[in-house]
Write a structure and sequence with these properties.
Layout (H helix, E strand, L loop, with lengths): L2 E5 L4 H12 L3 E6 L20 E4 L5 H8 L4 E4 L10 H21 L6 E7 L8 E3 L3 E3 L6 H5 L15 E2 L12 H20 L3 E6 L1 E3 L12 H10 L13 E2 L1 E3 H13 L6 E5 L5 E2 H12 L10 E3 L11 H4 L9 H13 L8 H10 L3 E3 L13
Parallel strand pairs: 1-2, 1-4, 2-3, 4-5, 5-9, 9-13, 10-12
Antiparallel strand pairs: 6-7, 6-8, 11-14, 15-16
Helix pairs in contact: 1-7, 2-3, 3-5, 6-8, 6-10, 8-10
Length: 382
Amino acid sequence: MTTVLVTGGAGFIGSHTVDLLLARGYRVRILDALLPPVHRGGQPPDYLPADAELLVGDVRDRAALRRALEGVELVVHLAAYQDYLTDFSRFFDVNATGTALLYELIVNERLPVRKVVVASSQAVYGEGKYRCPRDGVQYPPLRPESQLRAGQWEVRCPACGRPMQLCPTDEAVVNPHNQYAMSKHAQEMIALNLGQRYGIPTVALRYSITQGPRQSFRNAYSGICRIFVTRLLAGRAPVAYEDGRQLRDYVSVEDVARANLLALEDPRADYQAFNVGGGQAVSVLEYAALAAEVLGVDIPVQVPGEYRFGDTRHIVSDIGKLQALGWQPQTSLRQIIADYAEWASRQPDLQDYSERAEQVMKAVGAVRRAAVLPAPAGSRLC
């Protein structure tokens, strides 16, 4: 029986991937540090199956990672650090250095690992792909702080300054802007390049905003589903940054787990990066309205004119490359929200942690206030 190591396997995406691997007949080992805020008191979550072996340890710990790799043939590397805080070095330490150590051990100790799937992120695209009526396809830089302070949210052509139309972003060009995105791009380069050089088939999966049951409501720095749902369940209004017209695509964690398995099992994916997304552009305002409808509450979204510094205006992934291998997103956004709300409502320690997270992000300058001016309607896809 083939043994698969899932780093971060006690977490959100990891645990769903573990479930699917076990259902497919794999032997599964988990390496997870069980750190807060996702895990409390270093205790494993009750949803972890008993027939998955759990090792508690950090992917940056050489001894712990080496122990976890013993007898392993396949690796799904999901352990990561993500939020909007300014502890920049931690992003690269966990996401990049931990990945480099994985390949270092495989190569130097001649371990029989025959494939690695690495979790990357849609964030590596930054503002993504646009089309200017005059200058054609553009990959614009980060919006300047002066523009955001003035409440001028839309991205303009870096060549002529005109408004542009958003396009679905394929895998061809990356343009990371914030600390998380840069660390994920670094992780990708380490994995794909070292994998190619040393003959270790590797796949990087760039997840869009992933949502569903087991997404911890204690980590309230990011994650629209958990933040909006927990606020609505507490009778509080969801809060939209900028003008709420930002476009994103959202994907179910079950669909992401299936993508992980496809990448692990299909040799056509080797040494490539793939988008894993929902295939539909949805604005934040549309999301808030749908969440309130699903939960059966009449609580309108608030738009206080604040923004997350370094955030992307719009980003929607083109998923055609992964679809060509036979993968399709199967869960609607309505069902994603309903499934998360049902799961969260059953948790005995359910709370709305968003207010405290907001205070922290404002204190470190991750959330700032604009002098909001009238803004045009948000872009739709080209």
